[in-house]
Amino acid sequence: MAWVESLQKAIDFIEMHLLEEITIEEIANEANASPFHFQRTFAILTDATVGEYIRRRRLTLAAEDLTRSEDKIIDLAYKYGYDTPEAFTKAFRRQHGLTPSDARKGVGKLQSYNRLVIQVSLKGAEPVKYSIVEREAFKVVGVKREFSCVNDEHLAEIPKLWDKVNSDGTCDSLIPLINGQIKGIVGVCVSAPNTNSIDYWVAVEHTGEVPDEFLHVEIPAAKWAVFEVHGAMPYAMQDAWKRIYSEWFPSSGYEYAGTAEMEVYTGDNPSDPNCYSEIWIPVK
Fold this sequence. Notes:
Blueprint: H1 2-16, H2 24-30, H3 35-46, H4 50-68, H5 73-79, H6 85-96, H7 100-105, E1 130-135, E2 138-148, H8 153-167, H9 170-174, E3 185-191, E4 197-205, E5 215-219, E6 222-230, H10 235-252, E7 261-265, E8 276-283
Antiparallel strand pairs: 1-6, 2-4, 2-5, 3-4, 3-7, 6-8, 7-8
Helix pairs in contact: 1-2, 2-3, 5-6
């Protein structure tokens, strides 16, 4: 449960500095995690990004201030991180469905987001099918893009990359190169320590010469937890990640090892309810 405690420590840090300008690097450091891994874990467990959580909490406190104090709306806008009253009003209306002026008058209902407390439910009703695989270093060949994790940019850009490689023939060109243990196209996340960016690869495991049109990277030797994923994309994959972090990690005795992690997509129809894919996570 150490990682749960680390995540809660980071959330408590956010709450202590909620009205200050804090970076994702500072927050992730409280959890002893890379910015990418912290943001991913947070989003998986809470269904919200770190930025969304901070914004919701600030606007919740702003609503309380409006109903309990006589502070001017312009002063509250600056207090909660908005450059102008107009920007504050727009964000406030988006969350609460009414303007700050209406909230002060008691018109309408406010939407409150309470301080987050991580509680892991060890359900276990449905089995999580996995195997532990130890592998020496191996090579993947494909295309790479660097994505910033600032403002969760990577969450929006990675799906766009998949749309591109599926439509421009890249995946079709990669499939004949598959000659390693992993029989599918892989999405590989590699986060550099102490940075707020990742290298994301769409690639295949390959031994031999690398075609000129592709790059390659060596995946370090590791012990991998390999999880089966059954169901149509993207929902089956999203559900699998949530169950791994909310059920499997807390009860397994394993911890995330901090190197590359992979999603493996076979040749199955991604819309098929019986589609088979895998998640590979390095563990220790």
